[in-house]
Amino acid sequence: MSKRVVILGGGTGGTLSANRLRRLCPVGDVEIVVVDQNDAHIYQPGLLFVPFGLAHADEIVRSRADQLHKGIEFRQNPVDHVDTESDSVYLEGGTVLEYDVLVVATGSVLVEEETEGLTGPGWMEKAFTFYDPVGAVALHEALEYFEGGRVVVNVVDMPIKCPVAPLEFCFLADWFFQQQGVRDRVELTYVTPLDGAFTKPVAAAKLAGLLEEKGVALVTEFNTGEVDGSGGRLVSYDGREVGFDLAVVVPLHGGATYVSRSPGLGDELGFVPVDAHSLQSAAKPNVFAIGDAAGVPTSKAGSVTHFEGEVLVENIRRFLAGEPLDGSYDGHANCFIETGFGKALLIDFNYDVEPVSGHFPAAVGLPLLKESRLNHLGKLMFQPLYWHSLLPGHNLPGVGSAMPTRGKDNEQVS
Predict the structure, then answer these.
(1) What is the pLDDT of residues 189-199, one digit of tens each?
(2) Would you call 96 exposed, middle or buried from its count of C-beta atoms within 10 A (0-12, 13-18, 19+)?
(3) Does this model's pTM top 0.85?
């Protein structure tokens, strides 16, 4: 009798997990159903480039169903809630899907309404976000006609998708305004709730140095309580203010709303607590989570989802076979950080090792914590790799789920 694996979410995590599982398990043994509320799969790293005219929104969106291998069922339907006691997913409209294994892969969502004033007067006029296609397109139009003033890039709170993206926006804005011939009339400021430019000390120091080199002011430990769009002010909970003529805001993030409607499944933010190494849920042994939906102590980045996928799919196979789970996921993450002028910086780290210098994935490879043209080309090459290798569930040669230690210059990885 075949087993049913239901995967909630047809984004990066859900798609690559379904495709890897389909290649691993015969159709007659395992039925795979992917559920999503829409059929628009967005290449999210591409959103960063839309405001600067370096990508178009319609170029980074494809059909979710078309990314799935033959033998995988796709259902376009919002999820109402999950009942882990009865191993059932309740879809809006009344359909019930029973499962043997459930994978939560519904990522994170923007909750702009949680920040006072953000979506009020001035929203999409003076205050924008590039974290969704509509906002990215509107921001492109605003930047095209911006002739000078105070531009503030603000992270409201963590966690967020791709924590380096707001920094990348600062670096690209410096480049863009120079190309437009107005950089000397633009004051750029990066406003973050963190105590530095990034969460990891060595990388934070490097990135803070780059901000300074590019003339971007850094405001730290700023916890945004209000965005006054009409008045052009960010107001922190401690009363500090940062003025702006144009604000680029990264809103609060939370898990998919159905998670909070599912007793015992998620935490207070709507993310799913899991074992940090096996990705098995704390709610029930036959529930797993991957990507931004998973409550693990590492970045909510696409690379994390990629590296988690290998372990997750193996653990689904082991769970269905009654075997002990694989607890080998080490929190591996890496990120290309676009720094403008055809260069980028690369960081690679895990739960225990912060980003350090050296090369990736070995002693001969891409330079770490160092701007280079090669890293910029690597970031550009990732998009075709994403569609044609990562999503279909193929392994990238030389890049596995475990963080490589060769090539790194720090004794903590020895």
Answers:
(1) 999 999 999 88
(2) exposed
(3) yes
